[in-house]
Amino acid sequence: MTTSSEPIIQVNQNILEMEYAVRGPIPQRAAELQREGKPIIFCNIGNPQALGQPSMTYYRQVLSLVEDPSKIQRERQLKQLFEESPVSELKDDDFISDDVLDLSEQITRMTKNGTGAYTESKGFDFIREAIAEFIDKRDDVEGSGGVKSDPEKIFLTTGASGGVKYVIDLLIADPNDGIMIPIPQYPLYSASIKKAGGVQVDYYPDEDSDWTFSRDVLDESLDKARQQGVMVKGIVVINPGNPTGAVLNRNSIDEVIQFAKENGLVIIADEVYQENIYNGEFISFAKALGDLKVPLFSLHSISKGFYGECGHRGGYLEVRNPPKVQGSDLDFLDLLLKQASVSLCSNTAGQLLTYLMVSPPEEDSHSYVQFVQEKKNILRDLRKKAAIVREAFAQMEGVECFGETGAMYLFPRLNKLPEGKTDFDYCLALLEETGLCTVNGSGFGQKAGTNHLRIAFLPPTPLLEDVLPRWIEFHNRYVNSYRTE
C-alpha cells in the first residue's frame, strides 16, 4: 500500500514507452542551457523559420487577407487614394499587388464561410481539386499517359504527420501486425507504430552505396519478421530521406513497388521534402506506380520545401488503390473519412497554405517575379549551407557522409569515438561545449556498431561559419583525448 498523498494512475504502456529523439533528452538539455543564458543553435529539427528563414511574401499576404477580408477593399482604397495624390511618392511596389488582392477575394468566395468555420472533414473541395491538378502536372500525367489523381481520394491533414497516424492506426489491427520502416528513420514512424500497438520491422538501406537498397534487403527483413510471427502490412519509404537526406533513384523506387505488389503490402510514401533536392531528380511513387494495383498513401506538407511553414501544420494525404476492409463492405477511404470526421477537419490556415503551395502565382502576374526570386534564394542558401557543413566534415577525423544532399539534413557517420562513448555522449558534449544542438544517430536507429548524428543545415551562414570551426576543434580533440579508466 502506498503512503504517498499524490494520486497514481495506470496509463497506456505504449505511450509510456514511446520515444521521439528530435525532442528528446539532448534538445531538452539545450532548452535548459538556453534558459541559463547560453547561446544555443538548434539544429535538432527541420524548423526553418525558427532559424531565420523568411516566410514567402506571397503566402503571407494572401493568408492575412483571407483571414481578414475587410483589408482587401481597404488596400484597394488606399492604393487609389495615393495614386490620385499629387504629393505621393509611393509606387505600385509599396502596395499589395492586384493579383494577390484578386486571388484573396476568390479564395474568400470559395471558402463560403471564411476561415473560422469548420470545413468538410476531407478539407475544402477546391483545395483538394488544386492538389490533384498539382500532382498531375508534377508527374506529367498528360504527357506520360499516367493515372490521374482523384480529389475524392485526397485528405487535407494536420501536417503530413496527421496522415501518417491515420494510416498506421488503421493498419495495426493486432499486436503482431507490423510495418516496415527504413533504418535510420524519422521517429514519427517508430512512435506511431508503438502507440498503435504494432511491430516495427526494420530494413537497412546501404549507407556506403548512398543509402540505396536492393530487393535482397527488403526480402531479408520481411522473411525475418515472418519467421517471428509478424504479419507485415506495409512499408514506409521516405524520399528524400530523413534523417539521411538521401534521394532515391528510380531503381530503388521500382524495387519497393514490385516488392509490395508481390507481398500484398501497402506503401506509405513520405515525400514532404520533394522540393528539397539540390542535385538529382525527384520521382514520385505515384508516377512510378502507374496503373499497378498497389495501395499507395502519399504524403506532402507545407512544413518543408522552400516555404518552411511548420507552425501552420498543413499537408495532404493522397490515396491510390485503397484496399477493401476485411469483414466489411467498406474500403480504406471510408475509414480514413471516419477518422478525419472525429477531428472534424484540419485547421483552415494550414489548408489555405497547402492550396498556395500547390498553386504558385501565374507567370504573367505581378507577384510571380518576387515569388520565384524568394524561392531561388532560399533553395540556393540551403544548398550552400549544406556544402559548408559537408566541407567541415572533411576536417573532422573519422567522419564520413554519404548520399546526395536532399531534405534539410546531413547524417554523418562517426567512425572514431573513444572506447565506451556513444553518439549520444558525443552530441551531449558537443552541445555543452559549443551550443550546437544536434540529434544522436541512435535516436533514428542505425546499424549495430555504427555511430551517427543528424544536423539540420538551417542556421544562417554567418552562424554556421562561426560554430563550425569550434565544432571541428571540439571533434578532433574529443575523439583523441577521452579515455575510459
Please render the helix and strand layout as text.
Blueprint: H1 13-17, H2 25-35, E1 41-42, H3 57-67, H4 70-84, H5 98-111, H6 125-138, H7 141-144, E2 154-157, H8 159-171, E3 177-182, H9 187-196, E4 199-203, H10 215-227, E5 231-238, H11 250-263, E6 266-270, H12 285-289, E7 296-301, E8 315-320, H13 332-342, H14 348-358, H15 366-393, E9 399-400, E10 409-410, E11 413-414, H16 423-434, E12 436-437, E13 439-440, E14 453-456, H17 461-481
Parallel strand pairs: 1-12, 3-4, 3-5, 5-6, 6-7
Antiparallel strand pairs: 2-8, 7-8, 9-11, 10-14, 13-14
Give a description of the structure:
- This protein has 485 residues and is of the alpha/beta class.
- The chain folds into 2 domains: 13-51 and 370-481, Aspartate Aminotransferase, domain 1; 125-358, Type I PLP-dependent aspartate aminotransferase-like (Major domain) (Aspartate Aminotransferase, domain 2).
- The chain has helices spanning 13-17, 25-35, 57-67, 70-84, 98-111, 125-138, 141-144, 159-171, 187-196, 215-227, 250-263, 285-289, 332-342, 348-358, 366-393, 423-434, 461-481; strands spanning 41-42, 154-157, 177-182, 199-203, 231-238, 266-270, 296-301, 315-320, 399-400, 409-410, 413-414, 436-437, 439-440, 453-456.
- The strands form 4 sheets. Strands 2-8-7-6-5-3-4 form a 7-stranded mixed beta sheet, with helices on both faces.
- β6, α12 and β7 (296-301) form a beta-alpha-beta unit.
- α3 crosses α5 (98-111) and α8 packs parallel to α9.
- It is globular, with a radius of gyration of 24 Å.
